[in-house]
Design a protein that fits this description.
By secondary structure, the protein is an alpha/beta fold. It has a single domain, classed as Rossmann fold (3-Layer(aba) Sandwich). It contains 14 helices and six strands. The chain has a six-stranded parallel β-sheet, sandwiched between helices. α9 packs parallel to α13 and α10 packs antiparallel against α11. The longest helix has 33 residues. It starts with a helix and ends with a strand. The structure holds 2-acetamido-2-deoxy-beta-D-glucopyranose (3 copies). One 2-acetamido-2-deoxy-beta-D-glucopyranose binds next to α1. This is Sulfotransferase domain-containing protein. One of its GO terms (biological process) is N-acetylglucosamine metabolic process. Pfam families: Sulfotransfer_1 (PF00685). One of its GO terms (molecular function) is N-acetylglucosamine 6-O-sulfotransferase activity. It comes from Clytia hemisphaerica.
């Protein structure tokens, strides 16, 4: 009887031990499952978002969207710091072999961008960081750079921004890095130079190529006198500028469209590329938001953000380029459709045809329709951005 009892307890104890063993094995096993490749890489991939495009295509507007979020370190045109520091503009002729100054700029730009993406600032770049707090930048500043440890909430006094402070900020929180830059400031005007930053393997760049109808953004630049040559005959200075602008866009798009074509094969390529058309901000924000969210892999508040900006009568908290350019040059969503269509009423048809001639390829790829008479140019019932885009890499 006693023996039987002890045998029973033995069995019970063994059973208990066994189930504990199985339980331990299972928890081990499931934690192993969690760390299977794929999951492991997903977890550890560090993403940085780049918004790059020609000026007047809505890059600032997109930047503001990200800057309105709390967990973002947003940098507005950081490469401008290099131009400012050396007191000159570096402009590139993409087809000429690079001279020494251009090579120097490219090297500096890539090193600085690497600091920014990895959030690991080198002391030797402090002179560029200084630019972020210059009075010129105040209203465009990253929101996080106006809070602790940079600025005192009560006195509103701000400290000098340097590599040490930036690195402290990065270590403290899981920030998303968002950079807005104009394409002409990328080394040699090429967005593909983002592939040459020598980033550690687990870094990935999500590149949003900001685009807009070339007739609209080139006209906007034209009005702002952003065409550089001082030619007495406006048409003479327009043509080379327009040619260069659109050939650069084409080169940049071609490079990434080739890459994204093979995206399925190389899922872990350093750069993921999509195009966002400014005109699509006036159509379906829900659908645009979903598409952006899918690309970024985290919620974007795009519909809420733009709807509040469009509807509210008060100015948005974060000032945009609005303050700098007068209201008629604003690209804020409240007047997106007015702004989009302005060229149709104001631009002379010869200029329109010049642009359509040089930018034909880009326009076709992106689904912008040409107009062949002054009547159809002025007729606003004819929508011109609803052609059939020839790429799938659109955020829409
Ligand atoms: C990956 O991790 C998530 C939680 O982070 C988990 O829900 C999912 O089941 C994991 N995937 C695999 C294949 O184990
Ligand atoms: C906008 O897109 C969403 C999601 O794709 C869709 O459900 C909705 O019907 C669209 N709205 C309009 C007005 O087209
Ligand atoms: C403008 O375009 C619409 C749509 O194609 C057309 O019905 C209309 O007649 C045009 N108006 C003029 C003045 O040409």
């Amino acid at each position: 009887m006693v023996r039987l009892k002890s045998r029973k307890t033995k069995i019970i104890i063994i059973g208990l031990l066994l189930s504990i063993y199985v339980l331990i094995c299972w928890t081990q096993f499931s934690s192993i499952i969690k760390f299977l490749p794929g999951n492991l890489t997903n977890r550890k991939t560090k993403k940085a978002i780049f918004i790059v495009g020609p000026g007047r295509t809505g890059t600032s507007l997109l930047g503001d969207l990200f800057n309105s979020q709390d967990d973002v370190i947003y940098l507005f045109e950081p490469l401008r710091a290099i131009h400012q520091y050396y007191g000159r503009d570096f402009f590139f002729d993409v087809d000429s072999s690079a001279n020494n100054q251009e090579k120097f700029y490219a090297q500096e730009a890539k090193e600085f961008l690497k600091d920014i993406v990895t959030c690991n600032y080198q002391k030797k770049h402090d002179h560029y960081l200084k630019y972020l707090e210059s009075p010129k930048m105040n209203h465009r500043r990253s929101k996080v750079l106006t809070m602790a440890p940079f600025c005192d909430a009560k006195t509103h006094k701000c400290r000098k921004i340097d590599s040490q402070l930036m690195n402290q900020l990065c270590v403290k929180n899981e920030y998303k890095i968002v950079v807005k830059e104009l394409s002409f400031r990328m080394p040699f005007g090429r967005m593909s130079s983002l592939e040459d930053l020598s980033l550690p393997e687990h870094y990935q760049i999500l590149l949003i190529h900001s685009m807009r109808d070339p007739r609209a953004f080139l006209f906007s630049k034209y009005q702002l006198h952003w065409f550089h040559e001082q030619q007495p005959n406006p048409m003479k200075r327009v043509k080379p500028f327009v040619d260069l602008s659109c050939s650069l866009i084409r080169k940049n798009m071609n490079h990434f469209l080739k890459t994204t074509h093979h995206e399925e094969l190389h899922d872990h390529s350093t750069i993921k590329y999509k195009v966002l058309r400014y005109e699509d901000l006036q159509t379906n924000l829900t659908s645009l938001g979903n598409s952006l969210e899918k690309f970024l892999g985290f919620p974007s508040d795009i519909p809420k953000y733009f709807e509040s900006k469009t509807r509210s009568r008060t100015r948005p908290k974060i000032r945009t380029t609005k303050k700098i350019f007068s209201k008629r040059f604003s690209t804020s969503p409240r007047d997106i459709s007015t702004v989009s269509d302005k060229w149709r009423l104001m631009m002379n048809h010869d200029l329109v045809q010049t642009i359509q001639g040089s930018c034909n390829g880009v326009m076709k790829i992106l689904g912008y329709k040409s107009v062949h008479s002054i009547q159809s140019q002025r007729n606003k019932s004819l929508l011109l951005f609803n052609g059939k885009p020839q790429i799938s890499a659109l955020i829409k």
